[in-house]
Amino acid sequence: MLEGASKEVHAAPFRAHGDEFFLLGWTAAEPTPCLEEIRRRVAGIALSTTGIDAKELRGTVSVGWVKSEDLRDLSVNDLKTAVEYACSEAKVNRNTVVQYVAGMKPSMVEGRGDCAGCRTKFTFHAPVSADRTKGMFCPTSGTIGAPPAI
Q1: In contact, 94 and 60? CB cutoff 8 Å
Q2: Mean pLDDT, the chain, as a whole number?
Q3: CB under 8 Å to 34, separation ≥6 — which residues?
């Protein structure tokens, strides 16, 4: 995906976790057009399924990025946190590119749930401001469980 996206951006991917990657690189140019091109290329990938519910699946990429010079005096962990915050904001609207800005905090929290009734495991995103004192329901069985621990 990186090849040919830009001759001015030099980057290498590193797996962060799950299906997420960090791109570490350098550029004298504005990186947003290159990142938009990578996002566009992934969105162009289509996989066809077969069977009763045959359909076409398309990929999406939510990109969060940060200029290291904006965080010059911070640690590597602070840099990773900044990238995670920007990526979290990009995921809110899906398939977007978001640059980290000083003071950015995520507007959504991610959590995981396990249904004791049907053993479904699921991931959810909720606004930071949401009331998380109430139980949540399993999307498969509808069972209401304990409030999520986030």
Answers
A1: yes
A2: 79
A3: 5, 6, 8, 9, 27
Q: Is the pTM of this model over 0.85?
A: no
- Distance CA(106)–CA(111), nearest Å, equals 13
- Digit-coded pLDDT (tens) for 57-100: 888 888 888 887 777 777 878 888 888 888 888 888 888 899 88
| Ramachandran angles phi, psi of 18, nearest 5° | 55, -125
Sign of CA dihedral 87, 93, 99, 102: negative
Q: Which residues contact 108 (CB under 8 A, 6 or more apart)?
A: 88, 91, 92, 125, 126, 127, 128
Coil vs helix vs strand at 97: strand
Could you give the C-alpha distances from 64 to 9, 82, 90, 101, 116, in angstroms and in order?
16, 9, 6, 11, 35
- The confidence score (pLDDT) of residue 6 equals 56
What are the structural domain ranges in the chain? 9-99, 107-150
Q: Tokens 């980057």 belong to which residue? A: 11
